[in-house]
Amino acid sequence: MTDTSTYTLLDGKALSAILKKEIGLEVAAMVKQGLRAPHLAAILVGEDGASMTYVGSKVKTCDELGFESTLITLKPETTEAELLEEIEAVNNNDSIDGLIVQLPLPKHISVEKITTAIHPRKDVDGFNPVNVGRMVQNLPAYLPATPFGILQMLESHQVPTEGKHCVVIGRSNIVGMPMSVLMARNGYPGNCTVTLCHSRTANLKEEVKRADIVIAALGKPGFVKGDMIKPGAVVIDVGITRVEDATRKAGFRLAGDVDFESVAPLCSYITPVPGGVGPMTIIGLLQNTLKAARHEIYS
Prior knowledge:
It contains ten helices and eleven strands. The chain is of the alpha/beta class.
């Protein structure tokens, strides 16, 4: 077993702090040139506590970095048609560069209809089928924020990816599916041979153990154990779940999909939870919004 001192922590919190400064300077330069600051709009349907926290954090970060932000809050009983009207109003508002609709949505609203309704040029979450298609074809696109953040973590530490075997656990449209596409693309980070695993994968443990790079995004705390990891592997933990913990003042702790204690000693690189992938997600979102304000993807 590799000594615990040999792994490198992929510190998303530290990297995000550096990138926030860079983004803030770019926004300040735009304003100094007489240009409008990037403007991000967020729509929140309902009163889900976690969603309210996430959106509040995004709005706060926008304010810190000089972005304009608009938060549209809608009642839980808001109909799908009413939400579509709000989206269309933002689509037609030339003063707004990017739009996100916070997930999850109430069960009576179709996620597919909503993500398709957001205009591709304002789809800074990268969920619209147009941006997904452009991503698959390796064309300029708004990348989904979490995969975008992971790519930057790998790049910042110059983690080798070419020719590596990457196993992605979880096939969601938000993380797993786009992550598998991006790691296989012709570029850096990329050029991996990718296996996309999910709940129907046979011999999952064996598949993961073959991986040079493991990206866990399935939402099951502590699922990935040390006996599933090849020595020297890179492990990216996307999961973050509240787990009851009576020893904590809040009554819970945040846990990732990876059992850090048993996995870390085997790794060359690993992300912590919290402080790993999470802080980088909002960076990806703001970078996409900055691109939208500059018309870098769509003229």
